[in-house]
Automatic annotation (TrEMBL):
Highest rank taxon of the organism: Eukaryota
Assigned protein family: Belongs to the RRP7 family.
Protein name: Ribosomal RNA-processing protein 7
Gene Ontology, cellular component aspect: CURI complex; UTP-C complex
Segments forming domain Rrp7 RRM-like N-terminal: 11-189
Residues annotated as domain Ribosomal RNA-processing protein 7 C-terminal: 193-312
Bias (Basic and acidic residues) ranges: 246-269
Species this protein is from: Daldinia eschscholtzii
GO term, biological process aspect, one: ribosomal small subunit assembly
Length: 313
């Protein structure tokens, strides 16, 4: 691959030698860039992790384990998190009513947790690629045993001056997750996109088993929550079944809406009383002006009457 300029002066270049492949029988050099990990939201592991830019498209954890072992020796590298890794698809399809179980703090027994996890694994659809490939220019965060180990990797990368000293990509990798890349990888993908009917049926059955199980737990929890007193110590009693929201978040939302309505009603009543008070003050002012005018007329009449009076001398 062609060498590109570093995105920032903070980065340290790490050249990697790519061995010849049957599809491209030419040795090449891939340039990655390392720096201390400094995310926007700091974490306790930032001091012992490195941000890696422009990782090879066929990267795996074992590839980077062998790569860093060739630079600083084994035992320094722990794991790596790739930018484009996503959570399993089943995590976004859980029943909406059951998501509050974890927030409510319900603890399950260890056997139930293991069984729950196994059902989730079975509910996941079969993969369609035997090996994951990342887009060009992707990044990752490598975690090391300690801060010193991360510093040793940066120092070792700075010492790589000659191509014969570059680490070889894939050298020392004992276990690759799936088949190699190339035509064999595409042939395997063509097979995996058409899973057997039994596999799809088993995955579907496991998914709905999990869904029904979580819905049942949600109903049981909702039943308990309806018997719990609120912040004021009151328990709402209804006739003919539940009338109030079962979910705690729905109850909080309903309570918030009720408080907003009460506040709005209070403001409207307050404004109504203010209108009455304004009208009352206007009436009092008009009455005072009327009495003032009457008093003025009385005083004027008294003055006129006094002007006609002639005392005896």
């Amino acid at each position: 691959m062609l060498r590109t300029s570093t995105p920032s002066e903070e980065f340290t270049e790490l050249p990697i030698s790519i061995p010849p492949l049957p599809s491209f029988p030419v040795e090449a050099t891939h340039w990655t860039y390392l720096r201390r990990n400094a995310p926007k939201v700091p974490t306790p592991d930032d001091s012992r992790s490195l941000f890696i830019a422009n990782i090879p498209c066929d990267s795996t954890v074992e590839h980077f384990r062998a790569l860093f072992a060739s630079l600083v020796g084994p035992g320094k590298f722990e794991t790596i998190t790739f930018e484009h890794d996503k959570k399993p698809s089943w995590s976004t399809h859980e029943p909406a009513q059951a998501t509050r179980l974890a927030a409510h703090g319900k603890r399950k027994r260890e056997e139930e947790e293991i069984q729950h996890f196994e059902i989730k694994v079975r509910a996941t659809l079969p993969p369609t690629w035997s090996r994951k490939v990342y887009p060009s220019g992707s990044s990752a965060v490598a975690l090391f045993a300690d801060e010193k180990s991360a510093g040793l990797v940066l120092k070792a990368a700075k010492k790589l001056k000659k191509p014969k000293h570059y680490p070889v990509w894939g050298k020392g990798v004992r276990d690759i997750d799936a088949t190699p890349l190339g035509s064999q990888w595409l042939v395997e993908h063509n097979k995996l996109v058409f899973p057997s009917k039994d596999e799809v049926q088993a995955s579907t059955d496991a998914y709905f088993t999990l869904f029904n199980k979580m819905e049942k737990e949600a109903r049981q929890l909702a039943k308990r929550l309806r018997n719990e007193p609120d912040e004021d110590g009151f328990v709402t009693v209804t006739r003919g079944g539940r009338a109030a929201p079962a979910r705690r978040d729905e109850a909080e939302e309903a309570k918030q809406k009720m408080m907003e309505r009460e506040q709005k009603k209070k403001e409207e009543m307050t404004n109504f009383y203010r209108f009455q008070m304004r009208e009352k003050r206007k009436a009092e002012q008009a009455e005072m002006l009327q009495r003032f005018e009457e008093d003025k007329r009385k005083v004027q009449a008294m003055k006129e009457k006094r002007g006609k009076f002639r005392p005896e001398t």
